[in-house]
Amino acid sequence: MPLLTEIYLRHPHAADKLSATLPDNWPQQELREMLPHFIELLQHDPRSFPWLMWIIVNKEMKMVIGEVGFKGRPDENGVIEIGYSLLPQYQRNGYMKEAATALVQWAFGQPEVKKLVAESHLSNIGSIKVLTALGMKATGIDGEMQYWELINRRTNLPGSVAQT
């Protein structure tokens, strides 16, 4: 059985495959609702795998503490959207900054990725701090949502400066 299916079903083999304990409150509701979509997407497009969910495991505790990922493969313009969630008891410890930074570095190493976007609720100060730490710039507000972007300077976009 694939790992995402095992996570969705809370099958005991999921913890074995991850070499980590799965807390009772993980996956959280939003991810539980997205898992069937991820499973179906992977059945039709197995190459989407790295563009979906990466599980965050605390190495010392050998405990799943959250997830970070993208909302799918880059679109035709090379844009990807990041999303993440951390269990409440592990927030405000720098875990998400570390995980999101590693994921963005990986993504910006992929030639098709030109831009990273995100959205955050205006009241979600922790998320805003993570996005700011990633170097993302706020691009607008609509209602209670703030929108963010970060250009991949390693790509040759018109008007961009290549990193050296």
Note down, in words, how this protein is organized.
It is a single chain. By secondary structure, the chain is α+β, with helices and mostly antiparallel strands. It is 32% helix and 26% strand. It has 5 helices and 6 strands; from the N terminus they run αααβββαβαββ. Strands 1-2-3-4-6-5 form a 6-stranded mixed β-sheet, covered by helices on one side. Helix 1 crosses helix 2.
Short description:
Helices cover 32% and strands 26% of the residues.
- The number of distinct helices, counting runs of at least 4 residues, comes to 5
Largest sheet: 6 strands, mixed
Global outline: globular
Low-confidence stretches: 157-164
**Between the first and last Cα atoms, what is the distance in angstroms?**
44 Å
Number of DSSP strand runs: 6
Quote the average pLDDT: 90
The percent of residues in helical segments reads: 25-40%
Strand content is 25-35%
* Largest beta sheet: strand ordering: 1-2-3-4-6-5
Order of helices and strands: HHHEEEHEHEE
Radius of gyration: 16 Å
Q: Structural class per helix/strand content?
A: alpha+beta
